[in-house]
Amino acid sequence: MPNRIQVLNEKVINRIAAGEVVERPMSVVKELVENAIDAMATSVQLDIEDGGRKLIRVKDNGVGMGHDDAFLALERHATSKLRSEHDLIGIPTMGFRGEALASIASIARMRLMTKDKHDEVGTIIISEGGTLTNSEPFAMASGTVVEVRNIFFNTPVRRKYLKSASFESGHIHDLFLKMALANPSIAFTSTEDGKTRVKTPAASSSRERVFSLFPKDVVENLVELNCRLDNASLSGFIARPPFTRSSMRCIFTFVNSRPVKDRLVNASIIKAFSNLVERGRYPFAIVFIETNPEDVDVNVHPQKNEVRFLRPGAISSLITRAVNEAVIAKVPNDARSFGDWSKPTPFVSSASRYISKDWQRRGSIDFYRRDRGPDNFFSEVETGADSMERLNRLRFSEFSILGKLPNSFIVLYDEHDIVVLDHHAAHERLIFNRLCKPDTQNQLRESQDLLVPQVVDLSALEAEALRENLEILHSAGFVLDEFGQNSFVIRSTPSWLEGTDLDDLFKSIVDTALETGLKTDPAILKNYIFRNLACKAAIKESSNVTTTEIRELLVSLDATDGPTDVCPHGRPILVRISFDELRRRMGRK
Fold it and tell me: pTM of whole model > 0.70?
């Protein structure tokens, strides 16, 4: 019987390893820039073409390599950063596995040009799919240049999963921004298809680098973090509430100058802000954690973007203390009201409430919190499908109007029930249904010129995401153009979008595009963006709404095409409280 198990050849092994190290063009940039940083470069230049699919070139002025080292660098597990297994404890460098260049070379056409400062000439090595095709002496200044062309040319299955050039380049420039933040003493320059995208000279401090990379609206809201606890220190910047973003993408985390995605750090920051920002919003933060290399394990993930702390509790305490010292003591009192249960709160089905005694005199119902358990009559309120089966037999416009509650709740009734309608959710559903109509039927496409065009400044990645979705915004009634490198000028907005913070709206749209763009098709992404637009444009507070306007809302709900039982995010538009249940609770039945 022949043997079924065989040892794979070196070429296949390299391509398998490359799949762990090189996920997309951004992975190549990450490995090459990290090598430049480890080589003590003071200047790093990145050039890409076609989103990195056609060309990635990283040039540095670091220590470079001699002739023999240049060849060894292309071998798997060949590195200058480790000598023994003991060196894996307390790794101080960005790279250490010795896999990057070999993995990159195996799935692309690569040229390595390098010169040690002690040598008279450098060396150029040309590789195709992991096979060396040429090498010769090369005249150049000290440092290293690596050119990577036609990534995944020999693994077409991997190449077909790459996104558009603009999307891939957006991820590259987002990474490049993080590298620049983590290394202020290094000058960083990047170009895309011959156009300069990032150019930041060496800075004397992290503060100087942060203020040079982010727009004015961000830096004006930043306060400095500076705290030390035991053997760890934390520095950086965090935005004062109410300046927030709609996703955790705005939390930049660095551990010993390494950009990482760390759940512990993110969770600790969000927890520290839990009573300062509303649910679904996140702080803007740039956090640098410095700790003994022995106290953090960076050998967790092939792409080195995750870490594990030896004492996670101490790191969490450090973050909490830093945020408390820098932000909470400086937050205005009115910004601390989120989650304050000592104040009257709007009706929700699971909380204790009672009906105000003077509701008949005031023409409205006020629900207040009581320090009693959930065994009150509202704990069994009808919600979801059961209540909506009853609603479908009745039109919205047939409800009688009783009054208004705090926030965006309206009280209606019929002969069977009291009905609490979420005005915001209902208005949001109306706008969303109209946005989703075909263009020929949609009156929401009408635009209104702004008296003063508004400029929105974005990061490189955010700008790429917005460029990819301009057609969706144009279809909704926006008129905007590119205005500089990563800025857009808004000239007209939909006529129904009145009183909305455009800067916040567009950044929220960008966050939505970035969060969903990798895993959804354009039609689904359009749906997500329309949800976002509808939510931002919908009424937030019903205190000034008249009875006539409430009646118009109910009539519009009857007339709209599409579902009306839930808002676009899936939350119910209304809940019912039956009169039978009220009578039973009051001992009358």
Answer: no
